[in-house]
Design a protein that fits this description.
The chain is an alpha/beta fold and 151 residues long. Helix content is 40%, strand content 24%. It has 4 helices and 5 strands; from the N terminus they run βββαβαβαα. It has helices spanning 41-54, 82-108, 125-132, 140-150, and strands spanning 4-11, 17-24, 32-39, 60-67, 113-116. It has a 5-stranded mixed beta sheet with strand order 3-2-1-4-5. It starts with a strand and ends with a helix.
């Protein structure tokens, strides 16, 4: 591998999405977390624009990985009552819409991307540290962004 691989992970959310930048170089084994944060929609778009420009450097390859829960065939919202189930369903719909907006941005800007169907369990803080070596504090959106781009 002679290129620096850059993967951006996005966990879409209506209020603030998980965002990470991972790199893999010929000089290091495995992925390295370069950036990890939770950002509102337009700030995340700004970060995507910056990373896209940086990835145009010679010897760099970029892929944006977007968590796409809507690719799961069936989503059941189990809750104590219909009101709670309805709210969960509404939030899932909002997050799907945000994810599709990120996908549209990638298409519009000719940026390589991949929709990632979440098929593994969420990573808790302990598993996240074990897999990534990252020992700073994280939230679930950030961990999901890394999990989306990690493989």
């Amino acid at each position: 591998m002679s290129k620096t691989l850059v993967r951006i992970g996005v966990d879409p959310d209506l209020k603030a999405s998980g965002f990470c930048v991972l790199t893999k170089t010929p000089f290091k084994n495995g992925w390295v977390i370069e950036e990890l944060e939770t950002l509102p929609f337009f700030r995340l778009i700004e970060r995507l624009e910056v990373q896209t420009k940086l990835a145009q450097l010679p010897g760099t390859s970029l892929l944006i990985c977007i968590e796409a829960g809507w690719l799961n065939k069936s989503i059941h919202h189990f809750a104590a009552n219909k009101s709670v189930a309805g709210k969960i369903g509404k939030n899932v719909g909002h997050n799907e819409a945000i994810g599709k907006l990120f996908e549209e941005w990638c298409k519009e800007n000719n940026v390589p991307y991949k929709l990632i169907k979440p098929e593994t369990k969420k990573w808790d803080a302990d598993l996240f540290k074990k897999v990534t070596g990252w020992d700073k504090r994280t939230n679930q959106e950030e961990r999901d962004a890394v999990r989306t781009a990690w493989n």
